[in-house]
Amino acid sequence: MTELAAVAAVHHHLKGLNAELLAISTDSIQAHQVFKQITPALGSLPFSLLSDRNQEISMAYQVLDKSTGNACRASFFIDPELVILAKFIYPEKIGRNLPEHIRLLQALQYSRDTGKGTPANWVPGPS
What integer pLDDT is reported at residue 127 of this predicted model? Predict the structure, then answer.
């Protein structure tokens, strides 16, 4: 399964947490369209797939690999005030751990709502 298909599969969890999701790559819009056409698992993505062909976003978030012109595999957690609260940067050949992304988002929201931190291995629910 591609990462985009895996993210699409958990998108409803993210929406349930009032999160907005953007997928951004340095590929062209045309490359995105072809990729969606030849990858049936993508179907119609429930989130936006943006092209950073000019690499401005990748440079601003410091994830551009200048030797290849591609962005590193990264995830950013940005609050409503546009502050980056957390980020993951993965090696090129390692996929994201989406359950951990959801848990981190829940922990960030819990901390924001209660003013409390969370211990190691925290999961939502009664403690």
Answer: 62
